[in-house]
Amino acid sequence: MSGAKRDWHVVFSLLVVAGIFAWSIVSIATRRIEQSPPGAIILHIGHWQLEPAVREAFDELARDYQREVNPNVRIVQAAIPDPMYGQWAATQMMGGTAPDLIELWKGLTRPMWVALINRHCIPLGGEIGRPNPYNRGTDLEGVPLKLTYRDSMRSGYVEELQQYYNIPLSSFNSRVFYNKTLLQKLTGLQTPPAEWRAFLEVCRKIAQARDEQGRAYTPIAASGSAHFTLIWEKYLFDVPTYGAFRQADFNRDGYLPNDEIFAGFKSGRLSLESPYYRAKLEMVRELGPFFQTGYTGLSRDEAVFLFAQQRAVFIATGTWDARSLQEQAAGKYELGVMDFPRPTRDDPEFGGVVEGPLYDYPAVSINFAISKTCRHPEVAIDFLMYLASRRGNEKFNRIVGWIPGIRGAQMDPFLKAFEPHLVGVQGFSDFNVGGETFIGWSQLYSLYQVGQIDLPTLTRRFNEFYLSQGAKDFAELKRGWRRGLHDTEQMLAGLRGQAMSAGGESNWVKYRAIIDQRQLRWELDRARQLQLMDAPEKYARRGPYEYSARAVERVRQSLQADSTGGDGGAP
């Protein structure tokens, strides 16, 4: 080939490459102009929801918003994997490059999130008392935004800051999914029983069944952390522990957190031999053999795979898995949902301590805040209002397969079984006072779950380390509270400055409320707990809801006086 031809081929190749490059530049530029024409408002959304349906839902609602409200608005999503979301969010917020709308509460401790929210997010207190304009024409027209939520927007309120900072979108709950087809094949039942003893008998039948190749079936697919600890533990095994609060709730707030539980054990008012905890552990022992072998060390995906392969009949999980489980079952088997089985009040062993189902707090999550670096905060809040309208919220959650957070928004009929129990009990069995107690309890509890130690052994070994190591963890917990006073003082200084400069009573109300909750009340509670543990014979002789005959008589006289109009005598 002559030199001229070679040169021509080289030139031609370069021209082709240059032409393709120029075409790509023009195409990209044209595409961007189409997506973001001059004058367009770009809202960036950062979240950790990697499910394709979530991105689809945001895109669909964004198109609706463009068509119905503002054609100049464009939505750009950044979906960040949850293991790195906390670090990513903190870096973006502290670096001043946060997205306009950012999802909260993932990947960082709550105190860290509270600090970031306080510095980098816009308070929304002025918005939540106003009606949502996108509810016009419904029975929610004219209703303040916070009252349109199932939980009255409690999950949008940051208690530490005494302010509303985020707009939540979806509700979640957990129930037991089951393979209807396999259940009928192995037991002859169309639906599983809701009563504890009958449910155990069904599991026993399933465990005894074999397929054509002689392989056994697993009654319940589960994993250690994702299913047992977060779901079965919370929704079933913790239910009998509700009554423990009557023994150790000395601040009388109706709740029994880890520090009060430890004080109850240390003062002798509680132990693993208390009927509440004994019932829980006996229920674990009775149901444990029906989980798959080695479940304590298995991952969530392994449990879901076992259920999807029709080797297990039941799996407990939440609404976040509902859509994927439906898709896996399509054309293969019929999928059902049931509430958690529980003992009835006439149960010979547990009836005396099971007072009802677990109370499902109707919290609405998927919380989005507006960053202070947002260039169009008025558009950002308007878009969130659109998502939080009854129609918008219903459509968003229908696409995703979750429960709407707005009152009156219709959910997928399949999710009706996930309606929360608004009357029920709470469970109180958090023995995690600190690192040592967490490790010790986790190790012993895992051995008990798989039957390697019995209940007397668990009780003896737990008491040996909990009362000694727990005291060290409790002391460290107390030091942590004191260290946190520095952050509280900084927050109070900021609120005090706002109150002095802005005037009005609302800022002073927040200021006094935080002093009461974060300083005075905490110190009083800690002092009371130390008294209980140091001198139980003096301060823990009676439970917080036990009264002497003299006190009861005074109450009776006071009530009689009220009914007759007298003064009832001196108290």
Q: Which class do the helix and strand fractions yield?
A: alpha/beta
pLDDT < 50 stretches: 23-35
Q: Largest beta sheet, briefly?
A: 4 strands, mixed
CATH superfamily of the largest domain: Periplasmic binding protein-like II
Please bin the fraction of helical residues.
40-55%
- The quaternary structure here is single chain
Overall strand count = 13
What share of the residues does DSSP label as strand, in percent?
5-15%
Tell me the name of the CATH class of the largest domain.
Answer: Alpha Beta
Question: Between the first and last Cα atoms, what is the distance in angstroms?
Answer: 116 Å
Fill in the CATH topology of the largest domain: D-Maltodextrin-Binding Protein, domain 2
CATH architecture label name of the largest domain: 3-Layer(aba) Sandwich
Q: Overview of this structure, please?
A:
The chain is globular. The strands form four sheets. A four-stranded mixed β-sheet has the order 2-1-3-12, with helices on one face. About 2% of the residues have low confidence. The protein folds into three domains: 194 residues, Periplasmic binding protein-like II (D-Maltodextrin-Binding Protein, domain 2, 3-Layer(aba) Sandwich); 165 residues, Periplasmic binding protein-like II (D-Maltodextrin-Binding Protein, domain 2, 3-Layer(aba) Sandwich); 100 residues, no CATH class. The longest helix has 48 residues. It is an alpha/beta fold and 571 residues long. The protein is built from 20 helices and 13 strands.
